[in-house]
Write the structure tokens for this entry.
Amino acid sequence: MTTQSASDRSLLVSFGEEISLETHRQVARLTRLLLGERGILNLHPAFCSVLIDFDPRLRTHDNVEALVRERLAAADDAEAARPRTIEIPVSYGGEAGPDLDDVARHCGLSSRRVVELFSAAEYEVYFVGFSTCFPYLGGLPPELATPRLASPRRHVPEGSVAIGGSQAGVYPLASPGGWRLIGRTARRLFDPQTEPPGLLRMGDRVRFVPVREERP
Amino acid sequence: MSGIRVLAPGLQTTVQDLGRFHFAHHGVSASGAADALALRAANLLVGNAENAAALEMTLSGATLRFEERSVVALTGSDFGAGLPLWEAIEIAAGETVACGATRSGARCYLAVRGGIEVALVMGSASVHVMTGVGGRPLRKGDMLAIGQAAVRRARRVPAADVPVAGAAPLRVTAGPQADWFGDELYRSLYTVSEESNRMGLRLRGTAITAAHAGHMLTEGVPLGAIQAPPDGQPIILFVEHQTTGGYPKPANVISADFWRLGQLRPRDEVRFELVPLDRALELLQAQERWLYGLL
């Protein structure tokens, strides 16, 4: 573990540079251990690091670093809750997933096979970040990895299910975005009136379930 | 009748407090007042708790009719309302406060004794403009209720030694990737681009490029981080910033200068000065002493 100041009110704690399930679990554990600590205003977990925003009137960098070391060294009483598995119904292809055929072409697979592989995999929410409730999902089958668009779309509809490089994700709100859109879900990922506001939390397991198409 | 009627909303007038904390791990940044120092000062002047909800006006202000007798304070930039800034003033029932175009910086704050009463979303009254969390900018005809956030008497005399932005450089501390970069950031004059908003201030000027770029993984990003995207034109992450990002960051604006970011307008020019962490904290302490001197 290494630490450095990121600003005069934040400390960046890193657990190496390898994106892996093991690193993710360390990130998730530290985030869980620090939630609700006095003088800690925000925690920004990512693939291998946690950025800790603190109130500089109450805490210093040294003091936050000591807190991190103390919490990590202590026995983990608040062990991670048993992971939840969340199912996300998806309509693949067509207007809902305009890039499905391009992903298939890039991967040398049929579109149907892309949907099969994508839906068969189990994903884990590595962290929620970038924008409101956006989940970064590990577990994309390597044969489905597809580079992002060279030029991002100005408008990605809410609920779009997408592939960006070796990550999978879902857009909780309409926004600009450069990931490849393969489908869309009607399930809401963000509701500011619920606590917490996001459907998906760090550590959740996720499955994408194809919505059966109505046939005449 | 009671409350405040919005006769004209101005360019972008929103309800703000000091922000929505403890949700960054859900991808939700704090938002809150762009010039938090001016918002806190306005609240203290009228006798509110410093985190009470107030109005943030941007570049061109609102016209508001007060349906009840009120005590207000205008802080930040001068929007030509014809009222003194940085002091508590009484407004009679039925009186109109008409703000116009800015005569100085980007934002003017109006706090009313009791605070603006709105439903809190995730613990805050702050409007996150880009996502709509917490509401939307004001529209003509909106009615604002006045709340119960007053906790002491309003201040009787104007604030002294009020913050003035001037042309002094923005002070920064080293960012996580500072040693990837040379000193271009500190030798150049930058111009604030028209594309700037509450998410980020985009600057135009000498490109800052990583001399020896290392491996960059997406990581958490704090308020005031200066990002260097591939074109080298710096972006200062502002109150509605993304919570994580993948661009290297040579520097971070110090807390004591955050308020100045909220007063930057498109086409303003900025320079940067690197200061040590302990200096940044001394400057913040001095600012806090000034603020609590308003009590």
In short: Residues 180 and 212 of chain B are 5 Å apart (CA to CA). The two ends of chain B are 31 Å apart (CA to CA). Chain B touches chain A through 42 residues (CB under 8 Å). The mean pLDDT of chain B is 95.
